[in-house]
Amino acid sequence: MAYIRLFFILLLLRLVSAYQHHSLLQDNAALLAFKKSILDPTSALANWKDDVHVCNFTSIKCYEQHHRVMEIDLSSSQLV
Ligand SMILES: *[C@@H]1O[C@H](CO)[C@@H](O)[C@H](O)[C@H]1NC(C)=O
Question: Which residues of the chain have pLDDT under 50?
């Protein structure tokens, strides 16, 4: 019985972790789509690209464990 309970707990943790990863992928896609929709004359968002982790994008902060974008500060990026 204890094994079955452990199995379900592990399964749940696995699902939660997959969901959180999925959320970060969505944040990544949303930010890249946003970038495509604007002009960036000073290349402030130059590192917003596929091969950079979204938590390392300029002006972006993630939650501690990288499960979700938490903060976006574009106030000095001169976007058009
Ligand atoms: C972000 O960049 C730093 C410095 O280059 C690197 O050490 C770190 O692994 C990167 N983080 C992620 C989540 O890729």
Answer: none
